[in-house]
Amino acid sequence: MSKFITPTTRPIIAYEHPTFQMHAEIFREHLVRQIKKRPRLSQYDEFIKNVFSRNDQDLKEQCDILLRYFTEAFVHYSAWDYTHAYYPGRPSQQNARTDALEGCSRFLPLLASWLSQQGEPEPILYGLSGKSFDAVEIIKKALLSGTDRNHPGYWGTLGNYDQRVCESADLALTLWLSRNWVWNHFDSRQKKQVVDWFSQVNQCKTVDNNWHLFPLTVQIVLRNLTGDNHVQLDRYQRLKEFYVGNGWFRDGAKGNYDYYNAWGFHYSLFWIDQIDPDFDSCFIQQAVREFNENYRFFFSSHGVPFFGRSVCYRLAAPAPLLSALQYSESGVSVQQAKRIFSNCLKTFISNGALRYGLPTQGLYGADARLTDNYSGPASSLWSLRALIVAFYNGQQTGLWTTSEGKLEVECSDFSFHIESIDAKVQGCQRTQEVTVTFQYEYIDQQSPFSRTLKTQSWLDLAKERITGRANRPKNNLLRQGVTSYSSKMTGFF
């Protein structure tokens, strides 16, 4: 087994144990959502599916179409000057306004990443409908309105263990990526207003896991833009305690080894390294390189052996492979990274992973069994994280122009052990299947009937629809005794 990590006591999270007052607030925001929600934007779903069902489409063209698809939907669902977006889908345990904030915070980095690579004159983006969208104005309005206490779209006062602390990291990344177009054109009053809102994270407690990355990202952005140094290095040192080797982090002292390594840890560390290359680049770059040396074997032509939670973020699985291309040693070739990214998009999108303008709450179509209670309608927009990286460095790394390489399982059989997480990885060229098998049990108490996805009861579904609060069974198969996962993803169906 991996190294021992000193545990801390998990705090009581308010939204996991709501009071009557919180239930009332959740219901009130649920009613507001009924007023603010827009008709489902479905007219481009078949088109986007067809784009990724063909073999003759250029990857850059496909990504440009995705940007237009997501932007069209965001503007359609947005409210209060782009500060929130009420997407259709199953609610989270939190209130509908927080869910709608995710609709803003998890989309805007994509727009900002695209914007960061544009030159003069001020760029205009066209949606699939042909409508023109001013990316600079969208980001500017969102940041100024969301941080304005007197605006109806105000993002509010942050508290301990607040989901908005998580979302503030994506909003801060948006601010940094768009700095030449937005931040540098704010006046001193506007800058102070924005900084004051983000600075709230300095006083907020977080759960002792990957959440340390969120206030760190905000603090490093603010230091880069303002010179004010409030970076909490103790958070970073605690985060490094979760590192177990081979590029893998445990998500907290008693947490999982799962795909949060890809779309959580390494994604956030990449941006920290981009914002401040002097922060800890040696460790960050070495960790992602070592991760990719094994991780690139996970991908097959028809899927990925998913294990852990937040399966709806699946399109972001290639993120560390793309981000590491920025470095001289990446642990993967640009040709193979392109193949993995392109194939991941094609595999999921051609099978219906996009609907109504966003990734579904499932693997392919929507699947409530795979929608965690902390996930709202827009949570799956974290699936954009690989696309965000691609727009940021695709030109300079040669991603757009290189030819596609081959997946490891397309070349030969393989079998190896990842010592740090005690997992065996096997690939069969003939069947194009990759399996990851953990060689220990996450839980002791289990039965043949516990190792399966549970379905939400009709009663719990009715409660969820009436109250606006998620009431779904927990379906992290790692925590239910499943130890072996296949790229054919049979365990999820």
From TrEMBL:
InterPro entries, A to Z: DUF2264_N, UCP014753
DUF2264 domain ranges (all copies): 66-404
PANTHER family: LINALOOL DEHYDRATASE_ISOMERASE DOMAIN-CONTAINING PROTEIN
Identification of the protein by name: DUF2264 domain-containing protein
Native source species: Vibrio hangzhouensis
